[in-house]
Fold this protein.
Amino acid sequence: MLYLGIRCWKFASLFLSLNSNTELGADAEKSPLGKREQGKELLRLLVWVAVCLGVPLLVLSGKPKPVPDLRAEDAPDVAGMIRELRAAQPDSIGIGNSMMFTRLGRKPEAMSDLTGRRFHFLYKGGADATVWFLMLKNIVQASGVRPKAVLLFVRDNELTAPYFGKDDAASTYRDGLRGSTEPELDRFIQAARKGPEVTQKMDRWLVTAFSFPEWQEIMSRRMMDVAMDLGGLGAPKKAQRFALSARFGLEHLRGDLAADLPVVDELSLMTGSYEQVADASLLPEMLKVAQSCGARLIVFRVKRRPDALTHLPEEPDAMRGYAQFLGDWLKERGGAFFDETYDTSIRLADYLDGDHIRPERQEWYRDYFWQRMNGLFP
Amino acid sequence: MIFQSLDYLVFFAAVFAIYWQLPRRGQHVLLLLAGYFFYGYVHAWYCILLGVTTLVDFAFTRLMEDRPERKRLWLTCVLVSNFSILAAFKYFGFFTENLLAVLHGLGWELPRPEFEMLLPAGVSFYTFQSCSYALDVYRGQTWARRNLLDYAVYVSFFPQLVAGPIERAGHLLVQFETPRRFNLGVIRDALFLILWGLVKKRVIADTAAVYCNKAFSLSDSTFPIVWAGALCFCVQIYADFSAYTDIARGSARLLGFDLCQNFNHPWLAQSPADFWRRWHMSLSAWFRDYVYIPLGGSRGGGLRVARNLMLTFLLSGLWHGASWNFVIWGGWWGALLVLWRLLDHWLPGFTRGAGAGRAALRWAVTMVLVNMGWLMFREQNFSELVRQFTTSPFDAPIDDWRIGGFFVALMGLYSLPLWVHAALQKPLIDQWDSWRETRAGFTIQLVAGAALSFLFFSLSSRATSAFIYFQF
């Protein structure tokens, strides 16, 4: 800190001396402070910056007092999932987020009955490609089961686009799925941070140096607890949390909102070739893991919610080229790709909210899904 | 480029470091380049619009002085040019959509135009700022500038380019024409202001946004959830917009400029008119000076004043966005101001009476009205808005009351710093010039800075979003 202080002082003195040389521009007014006062003011400024940054960071660098079961609610039960998978011995495994379970249902039995094959689902709402990769590697591969097909449900280019870190709803879940080392995942996460090289490096450094996720979690949880005590009309906090999560479940959500409609990551479509984008993503690793389990990797791109006039959400021109590329890329490597985006049979009335399908239309959807996909499953 | 990003930090640090090494003309060239880089960071073609607005307004205002016999024509050219840009980029979709709906009602089916335009960020802000200059020149309140560089920097000054405050030539442009000084004392104040803005955005507004979005995402929301959602939005929009202003003002101060105040604790308002004197003050002043007063202002009979108020606020609503809910919101405020004037006539004891009880009652009524307005502002689906306004408190289950209570309590906790700020306005902030150099003043700023910094690092919301007013 002392070293940093001396460096800052030297820089500021140099800065001031440069200013006096250029007279802040020949037409600038002179500073109202004399040299002595300027020195005093500079000292105050440096003390202020040092205290404002130093004291909070010193406090936050300590370990916060843990809140019981803080992460338990959202952490995955990896061992339990592996046990269930072994017991199911499925032919086909579906991996995805709400795009999958609002289409095929949360339980795989209906798909199994419809197709005569044993289905098994692994999903997490809000999950992205990093979570799907970990599910495939640390649950499917780790379980030792040998499915014939692994089905991935994706929206637009989210399989390869670096969405990570934008609205990271599934971070606790992802952390719970991690193995002891995850070099491919870490490489992808680092590459996913956008921006010019300099800011990329700085961003990484800042995120490491100035983020205090444990404190953030504990502080926000404490705020919530106090608010529940004050506004919850005496109900136990556990009951309030349960009521909150139930009240904002999918079945209560509005159908007219675009809240769950992320736009296509245009920048990543335009950055480099599609080949480079695919190689930099987790897709090659996913394909490798699926093949090592003896499964065919099938990627299914869901249709985005159209508007009342059947227009699809705005999509960059490059998206069609990307979808074509992804299909060819997978086919060349033994995988498969199906894109239902331009299928006119799926209408606005079939959607609940965002890109989710209504529960009452799921049976029809499953049936329609299988009509189209049957041939791709080995 | 958004203020709460590393990109902005790097960009600003680079500009700041070079800026103070340059003579005034060099500073202006740098600010111009920086302004266009900042504005074109996402889409470079935005800069073309900015450039066109600047050149057109500069040229025609010069003509106003060089050929004053056609002053009116030159002003018309400026206004047509500026409002055409606004109409094309902001209102084209809205007008065609409504026109097609009317024609559909008459039995004529016309195809929807295929081309859609992306709304350039902040176009309403700099257009209004540039218009105000032309109007001031026309009225003889300021003179037409001969230096294009000064004027171009004034229009493209990046701290306030995309979300204001909407400056006037008499306040900001003159600052470009006078030398500025590097003052270390001001630097500390500016950094404090930026820190305060960051806390408001990342801690308060982004957290409020999460709960507000939740409340407005329900298809079957009940009375307590609807109104708790409106309150969350009230906290979100104030913290969000005033955060932008604070960061803009702080950034400008670091470059030696003083931007005008845009907020004066709107939550303390005791009447609709008082609210608009405290909320988005630069826009209110713009509409007052260039729309309300030219229409006749408060002169004339009650009906005439009512018409002026309604027109001004309907236009102000439309300024916010090309959507009916903003027009309704503007109409709501116009109607409230008219009604309050009537109330002032009928019940002066209530609207003007002294005493804490009456003031508290006025404040409570105003806050209810403000939140009703925010509901109209936030909800873009008209049938949903009607449903929300007609929910009955007696139909809500107890769990929904608990959720509503939880949301309200949480917003109360997160907005505590805003209340503390309001409480300190008179004794401390208004007197800051006399406090700044004292040991007590320094200690207060030190403790407050450390506390804000702690809040920023420990309570920032995980999810962040663009500033709400960017879309206008």
Notes: The two ends of chain B are 16 Å apart (CA to CA). The CA atoms of residues 36 and 47 of chain B lie 6 Å apart.
